[in-house]
Amino acid sequence: MNPGTLDYLSGLPRDRGAAETLRALCAVLRDFGDSEQLHSLAVQTGRTLARQRPLGECRDLQSFAQAADEQFRAAGWGTLQAATDGAAVDFRHDAAPLAAWFGADHGDWCYGLFEGVLAEWLETMGADEALEIQRVAEASEDDAGLTARYRFAHRAKLRAASGGGA
Amino acid sequence: MSHSREDIRNLFQSQGLSGGYREFGERPAPPRREQPAAPKDPVATGASPAPAGTKRRAPQLDLVRDAQRSPAAEAATPGSPLASLFEHLAAAGKAGTGDQGKEEQTPEQLMQLPLQALFARLVEQGSRR
Closest chain B residue to A129 measured between Cα atoms? Predict the structure, then answer.
């Protein structure tokens, strides 16, 4: 086989067994560590993914949401929308791949992956360290967990909303 | 002070309570006839006299309506010294300050706010309780 062909083939993505592998890894991790550590692991993984996909300059939230959505689609992560009322920014992640990657019973810690992605991008844009992003669970979750919601706000507000102490 | 039955009977009757106080077996007293109000001097009240034979109705007592009126609402009724104060405060609130103007931005306007300004606003929200 000539070197050019070999290079080409070795550079092709090997996605076929990736999902199955991730599901198996998730099951092992779930039994291995506590959810807080797993969540932290997922967040750091997300940050790494975000650094590999920089958004570029974004003037306002509208342009940020547009750039982030483009990256989500390009990466096969689904779609992303943003809205704000001035007190928080709400992100809606549709066609999320978490169930496909980690299984339907993946646990909440997996949401840390995209918490990390969004946090890394927002900090790159100059977000204050007091601002955090957190997945928001809703009473009426959508079908098969294909939609996830995240809220970006001051950590005190996020804790108050989740019932924790400030 | 002891109350005789006569005292109690007189008390009931003076209050015009239907049935009144009565002894066991005693028949209820006949209902008191509504006394027509004495016609007022139309010149003094500025109202035209009622046609002859018209029975003037007593003011209606609406406990529900009256209970819904809070003391503040009572104070704000026309003629209340607080009414002008409330009007002033309402006008001041509508005029708005810089922060007030910020609060009134639409979601679409907030989407186009420079990111640094948006982040600063979110941080400010965190300090509010």
Answer: B123
ipTM of this model? 0.84
- Tell me, yes or no, if B121 comes closer than 8 A to chain A by beta carbon: yes
Sign of torsion over alpha carbons A32, A138, A163, A129: positive
Q: Which residue is associated with the tokens 């009007």?
A: B87
pLDDT in tens, chain B (129 residues): 555 777 777 776 776 665 555 555 666 666 666 565 555 554 444 445 555 655 656 655 555 555 544 455 445 455 555 555 555 555 544 444 444 455 578 989 999 999 999 999 999 988 775
- The structure's pTM equals 0.61
Nearest Cα of chain A lies from the Cα of B98 at a distance, in angstroms, of 15
> What are the distances in angstroms from CA B16 to CA A111, A162, B30, B38?
75, 62, 11, 19
